[in-house]
Amino acid sequence: MTNHTVEGSPRLKARIAGLLYLISGTLFVRGMPVVTGDAAATAHNILAHQTLFRLGFTAELMSGPLYIAVTLLLYELLRPVNRSLSLLATVFSVVGSTIAALESLFHLAPLMILGGSPYLSIFSVEQLQALALLSFNLHTQGLNICMVFFGFFCLLIGYLIFKSIFLPRIIGVLLAIAGLCYLTYYLATFVSPEFAAHLFPYILIPGLAEIVLALWLLVMGVNVQRWNEQASAAGGRQ
Fold first, then answer.
1. Taking Cα atoms as reference points, which of 76, 13, 10, 18 lies closest to residue 218?
2. Phi and psi, residue 175, nearest 5°
3. Whether this model's pTM surpasses 0.70
4. At what angle do helices 105-113 and 125-163 cross, to 10 degrees?
């Protein structure tokens, strides 16, 4: 009975990681009520859909802890491949998630700015609308920064999966390509926004590899026998 529990543990962790991966991705991907370059229209969208706006903020906030949980589970699964690289990938993901949590304040700020608080009456309506749009723009830049860290995370996880013997190598290749694409696109948004605009959305298509990984972990899990073999070999090297 103890043997069965131990052997089933990596597969259970994999399936939990896959489920949480899908949930966190669903929470993170959402529409934003921004009309590019039109502060008045953006403000109207926010005020007309305040409940949806608050739900969007809550979903974004919740996706962070879920992604950290996924990261820790992946660390446990991939540690037998290379403990140092697995730990480094975890650091990149946790830092990225922390940045995402902090910059989510800029998601909530427009609602506070446009909320009609008496202390904001010194600003004109146009000024408040401009501040709300500026907050959204800062939110976008914050997301770009955290995605650079997630790019490194995907690159390292892809390499670890490729070197593993208990997950399909093709998923590792696809995930590493996704990481490189993330890094290329999001760094380009800082260096040359015009160039980045030409790359979007094609360069982000490889990001579908994350969905493939999540579904594989949820449905198939890992090859427990091979995971145990690699874990034993790693333990023997330490």
1. 18
2. -70, -40
3. yes
4. 170
